[in-house]
Write a structure and sequence with these properties.
There is one protein chain. This protein starts with a helix and ends with a helix. The mean pLDDT is 86. Helix content is 69%, strand content 0%. The chain is mainly alpha-helical and 247 residues long. The protein is globular and about 65 Å long.
């Protein structure tokens, strides 16, 4: 939940504009960079990864239940920071106006940069059909992340990950730096969660701290993984579809 929230709020702050005029009276948000969607998504993954690295150094020395308790506690700390620091992301008030990528494709007039044949093909779409446009964006990003992770798993680094998961002591005896491998895995996972948070923010348009409670963004995700099969990328996607469709 913590890295999911970091991704969502990071992309919101990067892609929205700072409130001015009448809006500024009701918002204490200190800044907004008004950058493109892809920049916001990339920033979300980077910020989540950097924070995960700082957290991983002390936390990954723990094991089993103690590690779970520590990470859940850190997630709550992150959520409460966004709740209470009004200058950062408007505190307990919703952060509104997160832009929707390619929303101009369902508006009239359509995107000026679209080729005429494509614009004519998209002309029948109404704003209510935007969910299908966004589904395409999410599917494309999911496919890219899946292919990147599958490639990584089949690399020497991926073999280090599997060896560390299955038998840490033997991996260390083989000359591998096990703490570094654990930190790297933690950072990559956090970056993917930050990316997911960014996509969530651009879909909902309005976010606040209450969206990122542990039940929604920690335990439901854990159930998805356990259902699909831990350590299995295809299983993670399948488990997400099954659980979310019945949620």
């Amino acid at each position: 939940a913590g890295f999911f929230a970091l991704g969502a709020f990071t992309t919101a702050l990067v892609t929205t504009s700072a409130p001015t005029g009448t809006l500024a009276q009701y918002s204490q948000q200190a800044f907004g960079l008004e950058l493109p969607f892809l920049v916001g998504v990339a920033a979300a993954a980077v910020v989540a990864g950097v924070v995960a690295f700082l957290i991983a150094i002390p936390v990954l020395r723990l094991r089993m239940d103690f590690l779970a308790i520590a990470t859940i506690g850190i997630a709550e700390i992150i959520r409460l920071i966004f709740q209470n620091e009004r200058w950062l992301a408007n505190g307990p008030q919703p952060l509104r106006g997160v832009p929707r990528p390619l929303y101009c494709t369902v508006q009239e007039p359509t995107c000026a940069w679209l080729p005429a044949p494509v614009a004519a093909w998209l002309a029948p779409l109404a704003p209510r059909d935007y969910i299908f446009i966004y589904l395409g964006i999410v599917t494309l990003i999911l496919a890219l992340v899946y292919l990147a992770l599958e490639r990584a798993v089949r690399s020497p680094w991926g073999r280090d990950l599997r060896a560390t998961r299955d038998e840490e002591i033997s991996t260390a005896m083989s000359g591998k730096h096990v703490p570094a491998v654990r930190i790297e895995a933690f950072v990559v996972g956090a970056a993917v969660m930050g990316l997911g948070g960014a996509l969530y923010a651009h879909y909902t348009v309005t976010i606040d701290y209450s969206h990122f409670n542990p039940l929604f963004a920690t335990f439901i995700v854990w159930v998805m993984l356990m259902l699909g099969g831990s350590g299995n990328n295809r299983g993670a996607i399948l488990g997400a579809f099954i659980i979310w469709s019945s949620y």
